[in-house]
Amino acid sequence: MRKRTLLALFASILFLVLTNKTWLIYKPVLVHFDANYTGEVQFIADLNKQNNFEFKKFKSGIIKRTGKSSFRPLDIKVKRCKRVKAFRLSLAGDDIINKKIIINNVWIRKPKYSLNNYNKYESKNAELTVNNNSLVIIPKSKKCSIYYKEPLNIRATFKFEFLIFTIIFILSFALFYKLTYYLADFKISKNHSRLDILFILVCTIILFIPMSYISQAKRSECENRNLAKWKPFIKKDGSINYNFGKDFDSYFSDRFAKRGELLDLYVDLTFNLSGDIYKNRKAFVNKKNGFCAELGALNRPTFKEGKEFQNAEKHLLELKQFCDSNNIKPYILVTTRPSDIYKKELLPFKDKNQDIIELKQYEQITKDTGIPIIHPIAEIKEASKYGLVHFKTDGHWTDYGAYIGYSALMNIIRKDFPNIDTVSVSDYNIDNNNTLVRVTDGKLYHGLTASFLKLSEKQIKKLPPVHYPLYEHKKSSALIIDKQPDSESGDYFYPEGADLRAVFIGTSFTPNLMRFIPYTFKNTRFIRIDSVKEETFKILKNNKEQILEYKPQVLIFCLLSGSNIIYFCNNVVSKE
């Protein structure tokens, strides 16, 4: 009896050690500094676990910011770092060579751990000087680093989850105690061998493998979604979470050990065993040509004739009234979808000709409200004969498709502002060798639809090869950008643009259009909205003040056909 208790206690302690990430949660280590710089710079903070400067075992945090020659505080959170013994700060950017980047007020975790002895820094690919109690960095390449020479000894703060610890300990002790009792009986049974005991032990150990590591990631890049959050049994206000069972199941299902490997194995098997078409509940891919599409796009909603259609026109008329009273010209650009353009390539899946229904409705709304709705489906279809207008593994326009949409939009705007000079293809350097999708902030990845299908790089390489054009304006260095922190929204100034102020509001299709819009107007304010949150389509409620403060002559909305345009029309003038 005593031996079994001690064995169960020992096994429970070992299990607690293996599951320590569930009850001993280390908080991110904060790296703080004030920086003075111009242009777009990526700051990478590396915190080494070992007391050396080889940085073979380190954790990193990254932020990307645009500055305008003034000091601004920057905070980088480095996750899953228990102890800091060495510090390195790397700087990267396409336009940082020989430009001054000044930093001061450097500290890690909290101000008392200050690293402001600037004579103790060394650099790689950069010149360092100390001036006015600040460190002046002059990069000599597109990426450079600085090191703090003295060893550090900073521990991360942690949170002890007593309730989780207690639950795991009690349940594991009860389980192991029962198991030892069962094995003792099992051993003395005449009909069972030691091999049977070993088999039971191995099976039991395998059951605990998923609990051996609980991921603390906030988001799954592969699935392109946020992971379930931990919701305790006892809430902060002391009340009981009666949905704890379901919440814990969702949390564990999203984070158990080797989940990613099992997911990859499942997708790999189903992808290889499927025929020419591989699909799941969200999307499909034609493996013969590599074209993907979302299943929801094939049967997307359109305006219902009657009251819903009249209600949409009513809200747009109120928007028109707001614009007229403030001397603003509004325009709505509605983007196409791959299923509208590549119908043959996406066979055997067929849509219900929503694109034809939508186009007729947009023409009617334009006629009834006076707000131009530009849906360049004819122009995009024609352009698709000469190049890819949509990414194969993503629903967004390519740079080429975005340029066609931009041209269709400007053809309408120039009727009201004939003196505007629009950009042309000759104004751009075009690189046709890119194989990845680029949508937001220059980020390159395999695509949103590919993530819905959970396709890995291995599976994507089995699809027919593809190259997309990348457009970069020849005078991009003249464009001054002031972005909001942690946002794609911001203000753009281009001295050679038309002497007009434009506000450009839109969903995820807008970043690729921002390769053209800011070079058209001297002043452009970009406001990014979320295509999956209906609340963000309440434009006047959320953005009225900053629109009026900017005093634009042009107001452009960029929306995706289907639910986006319906949400917009139903909410744009909402005052709730």
Overall number of domains: 3
Distinct helical segment count: 16
Structural class: alpha+beta
Spatial ordering of strands, largest sheet: 21-20-30-28-29-27-26
Ends: how far apart? Answer: 67 Å
Stretches where pLDDT is under 50 for at least 5 consecutive residues are: none
CA radius of gyration: 29 Å
How much β-strand is present in the residues? 25-35%
Largest sheet: 7 strands, mixed
Total strands:
30
Q: What would the principal axes of the Cα set say about the shape? A: globular
Helical fraction: 25-40%
Mean pLDDT: 86
What's the quaternary structure here? single chain
Write the layout of secondary structure elements.
Elements: H1 2-18, H2 20-23, E1 24-26, E2 29-36, E3 38-48, E4 58-68, E5 72-78, E6 83-84, E7 86-92, E8 101-108, E9 121-124, E10 126-131, E11 134-139, E12 143-148, E13 154-155, E14 158-160, H3 162-188, H4 194-208, E15 219-220, E16 225-226, H5 244-255, H6 259-273, E17 277-279, E18 283-286, E19 291-294, H7 307-325, E20 329-335, H8 338-341, H9 354-369, E21 373-374, H10 377-383, H11 399-416, E22 428-434, E23 437-438, E24 444-445, H12 448-452, H13 457-460, E25 468-473, E26 480-483, E27 490-493, E28 498-506, H14 510-513, E29 521-528, H15 539-550, E30 554-560, H16 563-571
Parallel strand pairs: 20-21, 20-30, 28-29, 28-30
Antiparallel strand pairs: 1-14, 2-5, 2-8, 3-4, 3-7, 6-13, 7-12, 8-11, 9-12, 10-11, 15-16, 17-18, 18-19, 22-25, 23-24, 26-27, 27-29
Helix pairs in contact: 1-3, 7-16
